[in-house]
Amino acid sequence: MEKIEELLFNDTIGKVVAFIIGAIIIWSIGRLIQNKVFSKIKDTDSRYKAKKFGSFLAWLAIIIYFSIVYSNKLGGLTVALGVAGAGIAFALQEVIASVAGWLAILFGGFYKTGDRVQLGGIKGDVIDIGVLRTTVMELGQWVDGDLYNGRIVRIANSFVFKEPVFNYSADFPFLWDEVKIPVKFGSDYQLAEELIQKAGDKITGTYAEEAKGKWKEMTEKYLIESANINPMVSLVANDNWVEFTLRYIVDFKKRRITKNEIFKEILSSVDKSQGKVILASATFELVGMPEVSLKK
User: Fold this and answer.
1) Alpha carbon distance 202, 89 (integer Å)
2) Contacts of 29 (CB under 8 A, 6+ apart)
3) Are the beta carbons of 146 and 253 closer than 8 angstroms?
4) What are the DSSP calls for 49-80, one per residue?
5) More confident residue, 270 or 227
6) Strand order in the sheet with 232-237
7) Under DSSP, is residue 238 helix (H, G, I), strand (E, B) or coil?
8) Is the pLDDT of residue 171 over 60?
9) SS3 (DSSP) at 287
10) 85 contacts 31 by C-beta, under 8 angstroms
11) Of 97, 147, 140, 101, whose CA–CA distance to 122 is shortest?
């Protein structure tokens, strides 16, 4: 019985119990605020950031509470912690840089969840931003086009300080893309240009109208010149054919689908041209052997 009383009134055990109970209460309050308050935020991105920041504040509050509970024990450890702190900081420099990167991502506008980015050579859509790592659903690699390959990649947040961050959807959620159409020499070039232009206007005209407003916002925010948003056709003649290039603007998530629709529309128009426009293909001319006469 005396041993039980000693354990109950032991200062160390009492502080451990007080810390555990206090930490549970702080964490519960944090979760309650997230579920009852932050969950009511309508904007998905703002709600996500609020929940992440709420979790960070809860952990910070627990650390502060720990220092309060053990305040009388920490005084003698100040010097030791100061000496050890330098070594810990050196050993955990990547972790510290990742935490700093997390803060820069949240408040610096590098990217947010749902953005399509390229980080450290990895291209994909951001699906989560943690304190230490950003989680990306990867695109490409062994899959052609901007399609998911099913691989989830976690990248240290410290990359935002070390390498360029390519964001495909931040302030301007559109991309310029091109298709090249080889047309045989002798075709009706003017008709070919009209067919390709009509295909571009028909398939990407909606994107162009939407992009004009976004580009206007870009010119107001950044020192950047006006750009041609409408589909544009140009041509160049080479040794084999006349090559037409259709340059157009497209939603950053619909490059593959849009290119497919454009090619289908162009092919259909070419078939209806009744031979006035003929698509070219690679041709090879075989030079015959010179005649050899054998004299006896």
Assistant:
1) 58
2) 58
3) yes
4) HHHHHHHHHHHHHHHHHHHHHTHHHHGGGHHH
5) 270
6) 174-183, 242-251, 232-237
7) coil
8) yes
9) coil
10) no
11) 140
CA 104 – CA 134 distance, rounded (Å): 12
- On the question of pLDDT at 227 being above 60, the answer is yes
One-letter amino acid identity for 26? I
Cα 279 to chain centroid distance, Å, stands at: 37
CA–CA distance, 138 with 123 (Å, rounded to integer):
6
SS (H, E, C) 150-187: EEEEEEECCHHHHCCCEECCCCCCEEEEEEEEEECCCC
Rounded-to-10 torsion of CA 218, 220, 223, 225? 70
Round to whole Å and give the CA distance between 151 and 142: 11
Amino acid identity of 2? Answer: E
Among 225, 226, 266, 264, which residue's Cα sits nearest to residue 245? 266
- Non-local (6+) Cβ contacts of 157 within 8 A are 97, 98, 99, 100, 101, 102, 104, 105, 129, 130, 131, 132, 133, 134
- Spell out the alpha helix ranges (H) of the chain: 2-8, 11-36, 44-69, 71-74, 78-91, 93-108, 159-162, 189-221, 255-271
Within 10 angstroms of residue 169's Cβ, the number of other Cβ atoms is: 19
pLDDT in tens, 46-98: 666 677 777 777 777 777 777 776 666 555 545 555 555 555 555 567 777 88
Task: Output the CA torsion sign for 220, 225, 226, 229.
Answer: negative
Question: Cα–Cα distance between 37 and 53 in angstroms, integer?
Answer: 13
